[in-house]
Known about the structure:
30% helix; DUF3000 family protein; 247 residues
Amino acid sequence: MRLADTPAAVRAGGDAEAVPAGQGAAADGVGSAATDSAAFAAAVAALEAARDAVTEVRDDLEIEDWPAPKRLAPYAIAFEATAYRDGQEAGSAKLMLLHDPAGHESWTSTFRVVVQVHADVEEEMAADPMLGEVGWSWLTDALDLHAPGYGAPSGTVTRVITEGYGGKADEPPSTAFELRGSWCPDGEQLDDEIGGAIFAWCDLLAAAAGLPAQPPGTRMLGRRGQHGAGQHGAGQHGAGQRGRRRQ
């Protein structure tokens, strides 16, 4: 499953364009198009409510709509986020929510969340053999906190080394961390699990970008707020200082 694919036009209200007939449940006679659309609309509402809750309390994260790939599922919506530290870009991320009413062989529900996070890191951290395990734990710890009913998790952690040649030979090498992951939210508590997916995604981006999961002086979100937990997985881990300055 690739995060980048042919973009789909996003309808007003956040609903992404459905895949052409023949690939969705309605085309196969499973359920009805109206029921499927209503289920997806409710999931989108939960996703957007969680997004708004994050942007209300965090000024170091910007979340915007992103064209959702249309070949992965009959229904899809996507967001992209940028993390800033000291006024400079410190990391970026994408999140997609997929819905296939007919289900999928490897899914445990009719919904699937797909995320990608990228952040510059110091060379020493990129060389740490534990980076993959630690990076994956940032995601699973955040899911355990915010969306504990998640199922069928899958993903990769990649070290990225960029070197310049020719006209860019004078540019210093850069090192980065990239995580791609996906999971199915619990269908029994779908609204909470989908909202929790946004909170977990933002926690993951914050950790990768070297930001605190809970900004000082702000109210706690999701299950962290419900249970009164303290800061979770604070991310001051020596992430790189490179990146564009915030406008």
